[in-house]
Amino acid sequence: MDTVDPVIKRKLTLTGWQRVFIVASAAWLGVCAYSAYRHFPTAEKTTKAVEQSWGSIFQDLDRRMKDIESRCSALSSGNDERGMVKQFACLRDSDLSRLSEQRKKERYAMLESIQVVVSNVPAMQAKTVGKALLFWLIPSVLLYLCVAWISAGFKKGA
Hints:
By secondary structure, the chain is mainly alpha-helical. The protein has helices at residues 6-12, 16-38, 43-73, 81-93, 96-119, 121-157. The longest helix has 37 residues, at 121-157.
């Protein structure tokens, strides 16, 4: 009761090489999907990366501000009035206020850069998915062409 033409049936069945291609292609798809999942950009990941890149700037400014504060606080010995006046004069004449303003400006610049990066997250996500598909598709097509070439060679020899 088999009504399918034998030629069509033979074309619909998979050869061993085609099965190898399907298994290898599926395994490679799994590797590419996992890699895309691991590197998939999110707003949280990109915000954290931007904050880390700005961290050294803030650490340097904070270190310089602490150096000034410790140098000026060493001028006052105890609670005497003259020492406190020296300390106040030191803090007033130092670069502390300038550094504090610079820190504020850097903070605003960092927040602006976070906004720019987070607004680009959908484009980065699309790029990641596109790369993963290309990393899967190109080797799969090349493997398919190799399998077809090998399969054609066996058919000619038979």
